[in-house]
Amino acid sequence: MQENFSPDEQFAFNLDARDPLSKYKNKFYIPKNSKGEEIIYFCGNSLGLQPKTVAAAIDQELIDWANLGVEGHTQAKNPWLPYHELLTEKMAEIVGAKPIEVVIMNTLTANLHLMMVSFYQPTKKRHKILIESDAFPSDKFAVASQIKHHGFNPKDSIVYWQPKKGKNLLDYDDFENILKKHGQEIALVMLGSVNYYTGQFFNLKKITRLAHSYGCKVGFDCAHGAGNVNLDLHRSRADFAVWCTYKYLNSGPGSLAGCFVHERHAYNKNLNRFTGWWGHNKQTRFKMRDEFDQLPGAEGWQLSNPPILSMAAIKASLKIFKEAGMKNLINKSNKLTAYFEYLINEINNPKIKIITPSDPKQRGCQLSIQVKNSDKTLFKKLTDSGVITDWREPDVIRCAPVPLYNSYTDIFNMVKKLKNCLHE
Ligand SMILES: Cc1ncc(COP(=O)(O)O)c(C=O)c1O
Description:
- This protein has 424 residues and is α/β, with parallel strands linked by helices.
- It has 14 helices and 13 strands.
- It has helices at residues 9-17, 54-68, 72-75, 85-95, 108-119, 137-149, 154-157, 172-182, 204-213, 233-236, 308-324, 326-347, 377-384, 408-423, and strands spanning 40-41, 102-105, 128-132, 158-161, 186-192, 217-221, 240-244, 257-261, 352-354, 367-371, 387-388, 390-392, 396-399.
- The chain has a seven-stranded mixed beta sheet with strand order 2-8-7-6-5-3-4, sandwiched between helices. A four-stranded antiparallel beta sheet has the order 9-10-13-12, with helices on one face.
- The longest helix has 22 residues, at 326-347.
- The mean pLDDT is 97.
- The site of pyridoxal-5'-phosphate has 12 residues, from helix 5 and helix 6.
- Pyridoxal-5'-phosphate is lined by residues 107-109, 136, 138-139, 192, 196, 221, 223-224, 244.
């Protein structure tokens, strides 16, 4: 998308004035500095801001718990027994899945393990897992521990997709070459949807098609994709995906995670899995004596009765997404990020470089700014000036203007401060 942007402040005001989603900013608490002034928050890729409706949603459950005790499971305004079902459809819409493919449960890394129990079934010949060379550490640990659990050595069984020398982004020709070389030995391809460090958004369909053609299973960690980009999980045909709800999905620190299992596995009883009573047939769950009778679809992977207070926050947040519409959010996000990129490029300072792809199809809202000589003082100055971003070792400031609560004026002000910090 080629936009005609202009570097003056009035231009940002005009974009905000014409933005149909600008009213959503007021639905969130924007953190303030010690003087009570709103800070510029570009950290929705780490922890999303709190919707103002969350407190009431949690309060409703606290009131029902106080008034009803255990009866709340069936008598609460939103009965707790089927509470997670209130979230499924809206969440499925956000990630481009069918409701049967989605469940909210556990936390991200826990779900990743559960999925690998089912979709990583190594054999002597096919025991490798392909991941990004700079995959998020928790994913690396989870993958290595699964490999060890099956009696293999991570040194032999992890294959890395890495950037070409001197580059930051991953190239598909390298991915194809890895498959040509190791495809018959790779049991699972497990990648981020959007890489946490570079912000590169992968082509999930292309990756899945290629990996499946070599007989590999495919899973995605969508921590940085859910609520940010068009994941289109069902059509990607990935075997599974997992994500958290505390980043772009604004559901609070450590909140519950999402899990996708493609529809074609919905009724498969032969898949290995770890089980618990919440994955059991709802009609007979409380009979307590039955053999495990799995629920169809992603719900069948549930273990425990879920924490309702955390789900209440997710419910409040998803309502906002439903109202705003994922498509509209992505449209605004593309424009916000393009404007952000334009203003940073206008600074034209050799100390910084954007490493995120400039093609909007290959990124979400995050721009990763690489700082020359890994100079973290720039990040510190930026923070002191009232801009919240985050620093990721070794040399990147990650900035994520999110379309629900960031404005074009936020971007203008952020870049103005960045420019000042660079000249200090
Ligand atoms: C890409 C990615 N994967 C995994 C995790 C770990 O998530 P959790 O602590 O919720 O298991 C994170 C956390 O930020 C992440 O960004």
